[in-house]
Write a structure and sequence with these properties.
47% of the residues lie in helices and 17% in strands. With 418 residues, the chain is an alpha/beta fold. The strands form two sheets. It has a seven-stranded mixed beta sheet. It has a five-stranded mixed beta sheet with strand order 1-2-4-3-5. The chain binds glutamic acid.
Length: 418
């Protein structure tokens, strides 16, 4: 555990948990049992590169708790992936699933690789090797993976194929976020971003803000791009966007169609002509109505939390706000925080729908999926806000304490075996 604790993201997840446990007056015996990851697996992945050379990558999977059903969570391909970060992300998945009442524990996987540096064939060999190393550890009733940063539908299709070959028949329920033609769910690709947009629109209405909000989105991947498109469709003005190559800012509004065409051609946002170019750090502190961090964790820190200029902070990324930044935000009641485990939960909710559809081999219409998704998101938002008001606590503490208490109650009811 010491090795995990040396990672800032894991320390952050533990600090958040400890603060909530103190608030709930949780008995010490229950704390460790609820906080620590149940199972962790690290594997080395030898992969033949196109040059003929063999490179070894490191892969992890952390299953945080198995009290309520299989574990659920994405697989991340990123050059900085470490076990501690994966464990933190698994813990956040636990509270996220519990908050939305999904019958899952949290999990996360990661491979230390920059997927942009691999050819498609190399990426496929890496994915298949990771999946086959994971076969004893995962299963539709044990642990179900999904896309996360650096992975996508194609990666899920290779995983489903590799797993199915080992089992001897097609097992679509082993992953979610697959292509629809392989048993994926309609709406899954857009679900996280559209869920973020739905919650922002609800809060904009609640705060009686004008409909043509100025929105800055940090990160234009699967989540950020669909959130921006959905918000623009409902009348918001996207004034700032960024990706790994930097940010673009235009107070008049960015032409998202032109931006998407540019990214399709060039691979990144750099050199896009539709606005002024800023760094990711500069973009975060520009004036706007809604700020959407939709990339890495720990981007709102004690350095910039006092400087951000938004009315709504919608946390589309996992863990974007550090504990120190949170303390500053608590002194800034003018900022309405939609905490990550609520804000980005649309993805895992539709993953749950996909898993249910796969298990029953009966598929729903897109309308049904979004109706059900928005109903869950709306109810959960109301529950979190009611809890925050009743207990006079911030939105993150309310969301985390609701999620954590559900896991604790389940553990108490099941009891200890043997
Ligand atoms: N990777 C996404 C997340 O962090 C989705 C996980 C899933 O769908 O299982 O919530």
């Amino acid at each position: 555990m010491q090795r995990l604790l040396s990672h800032p993201a894991y320390k952050m997840a533990c600090d958040q948990f400890d603060a909530v446990a103190d608030f709930l007056d949780m008995p010490v015996a229950l704390r460790e049992r609820t906080k620590l990851p149940k199972r962790m697996l690290t594997v080395s992945l030898p992969v033949k590169m196109d040059s003929g050379e063999v490179k070894v990558f490191l892969g992890h999977r952390v299953q945080h708790h198995l009290t309520l059903g299989p574990t659920k969570g994405g697989l991340r391909f990123h050059q900085d992936v470490e076990l501690g970060e994966v464990a933190a992300l698994a813990m956040w998945m636990s509270w996220k699933c519990a908050l939305a009442d999904l019958p899952y524990g949290g999990a996360k996987g990661g491979v230390q690789v920059n997927p942009r540096e691999l050819s498609t064939a190399e990426l496929e060999r890496l994915t298949r090797r990771y999946t086959s190393e994971m076969v004893p550890f995962i299963g539709p009733q044990t642990d179900v993976m999904a896309p996360d940063m650096g992975t996508n539908e194609q990666v899920m299709a290779w995983m489903m194929d590799t797993y199915s070959h080992q089992i001897g028949h097609a097992v679509p329920s082993i992953v979610t976020g697959k292509p629809v033609s392989l048993g994926g769910s309609l709406g899954r690709k857009e679900a996280t971003g559209r869920g973020v947009a739905f919650l922002i629109n609800r809060v904009v209405d609640m705060l009686k803000m004008p409909g043509d909000c100025r929105v800055i989105v940090q990160g234009f991947g699967n989540v950020g791009s669909y959130a921006a498109l959905a918000l623009a469709k409902f009348g918001s003005r996207i004034t700032g966007v960024s990706d790994v190559s930097g940010g673009v800012f235009n107070p008049k509004g960015i032409d998202l169609v032109a931006l998407q065409e540019h990214i399709e051609r060039k691979g990144v946002l750099a050199d896009f002509k539709g606005g002024d170019h800023l760094s990711n750090e500069e973009l975060l502190v520009q004036p706007c109505d809604v700020l959407v961090p939709a990339a890495l964790d720990q981007v709102i820190t004690e350095k910039n939390a006092g400087k951000i200029q938004c009315r709504i902070l919608a946390e589309a990324a996992n863990g974007p706000t550090t504990v120190a930044a949170d303390a500053i935000l608590r002194q800034r009641p003018e900022i309405f925080v939609i905490p990550d485990i609520l804000c980005n939960s649309g993805g895992v909710i539709v993953s749950y729908f996909e898993w249910v559809q796969d298990l029953q081999s009966f598929f729903w219409s897109e309308q049904e999926i979004f109706d059900k998704l928005y109903r869950i998101l709306g109810t959960t938002l109301d529950t979190v806000l009611r809890e925050a008001k009743a207990k006079n606590i911030d939105h993150r503490t309310a969301a985390l304490s609701l999620g954590i208490q559900k896991v604790v109650r389940a553990k108490q009811l099941r009891g200890l075996f043997p």
